[in-house]
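Support request, please re-run this one:
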Amino acid sequence: MGPPQRQPHLWLLFLVVVLVWPQPCMSLELIPYTPQITAQDLEGKVTATTFSLEHPRCVLDGHASDTDTIWLVVAFSNASRDFQNPQTMAEIPASPRLLTDGHYMTLPLSLGQLPCKDFVGGSSVRVLRVGNDPNCLADLHQSSYCNAPLPGPGPYRVKFLLMDFRGSPQAQTRWSDPIALHQGKSPSSIDTWPGRRSGDMIVITSILSSLAGLLLVAFLAASTVRLDTASPPFLVQLQPVVA
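Re-run finished. Output below.
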């Protein structure tokens, strides 16, 4: 008896299945949009724990359906390239994962919450403020995908990711440029050398110092006159004790 005959058609069938099986990462649509900090002249659009993105008006229309969810992916700049789009709802990373994995997802929105039209009155400004919920982690009733304050200066990158009702990714935007938050200065780093002051500041400081000296001299003179006309309060005349 000879060796058993191989069945090449089984290997061929397996190869065909691999080639035609849908690959989510390869078929994911790229939306030609780059998220960025709002260009509006707003105070506090970048703080030590938050930053405000421009409203992506008319960007996602035509790419998302009414049943899709629009997520914001936030990642450390050096960890953005390692982010893998989740394939199910259970794989969506929450905000605590930022410190361990370098990324998380937040701000789940529907297409109706990002209308492609002018806002009421035409004067209001809508932005997406990342890190705007200080009670996120303390409130047990909050969603695990809540918008927690950012833990450090970054820099960060963000992108929008569209997922259908099953949690399967459908489309995504480009990653933003690095976004760095504001940092407070240490008191030891503040330069107090007088040479850094302007000429006007030096003149004002000199005048104030002179006035303080004059007030001190006047106070001492008035105190001296008062002491000459009255006994000091700590001098008490003692009476001898009669045996």
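The two ends are 146 Å apart (CA to CA). Strands lie at 29-31, 51-54, 69-76, 103-109, 127-130, 156-163, 169-173.
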